[in-house]
Design goal:
Length: about 200
């Protein structure tokens, strides 16, 4: 049974690798396509202003996904070639109790009308850096798509969040990403839940 789980995990990683290698629209497919309202807002604002600001156009897993493989990867796709360091420094993966505590603090501060507090937001960014899941990025040749592979498996049956700060991301030619449409604090947030261990998944069926 462990072999089956490993095969499924390897298949998911392979599909993401195909996406990474292809990088064209024909290779994106349903695996990573998402009708994300935040990404759509970023695209619309850039188009209306006649700008070529980069926009996030696809995320894997999509917001609200359940049963994402605990050994799986994260995929990001942008509308234009990106500056990798700016993306890698402003994308975080966090889950479990750490994520819940971070979100509670952010929401409490927001409720008190303190989102403009630069000192607090700096504290929140440092906190996020200390609890995010470590891993490695791999970029396609065109630099408009990447996958993030955690160094070790995520927790089973656990809530995770992909958190990004578009205000710190830019294209390869230095165009800053449009932050309009982000959540309070300038963050884009996507939530998913990992799958159950195979023996528990079988019992649920």
């Amino acid at each position: 049974m462990k072999k089956t789980a490993l095969v499924l995990s390897a298949l998911a990683t392979l599909l993401l690798a195909v996406w990474l290698t292809g990088c064209g629209d024909d290779h994106l497919g349903a695996l990573s396509r998402t009708d994300n309202s935040d990404a759509q807002t970023l695209n619309n604002n850039s188009a209306a202003a006649g700008q070529t600001a980069p926009a996030l156009i696809a995320v894997h897993p999509a917001d609200g996904t359940v049963d994402h493989p605990a050994t799986g990867a994260i995929g990001l796709r942008f509308s234009t070639p990106m500056d990798p360091p700016s993306v890698m420094g402003n994308m975080h993966l966090v889950g479990g109790a750490d994520m819940a505590a971070w979100m509670d603090s952010l929401e409490n501060h927001q409720g008190m009308g303190g989102m403009g507090d630069m000192m607090f937001m700096s504290f929140m960014r440092d906190w996020m850096d200390s609890i995010c899941v470590p891993g490695e990025f791999q970029w396609c040749e065109q630099m408009d798509s990447c996958i993030f592979m955690p160094d070790s498996a995520m927790e089973y049956d656990c809530d995770y969040m992909i958190m990004m700060e578009p205000g710190g991301m830019m294209s390869h030619d230095g165009m800053m990403m449009d932050s309009t449409g982000c959540h309070s604090g300038g963050f884009l947030m996507y939530y998913f839940r990992t799958d159950l261990p195979e023996h528990l998944a079988r019992n649920r069926q």
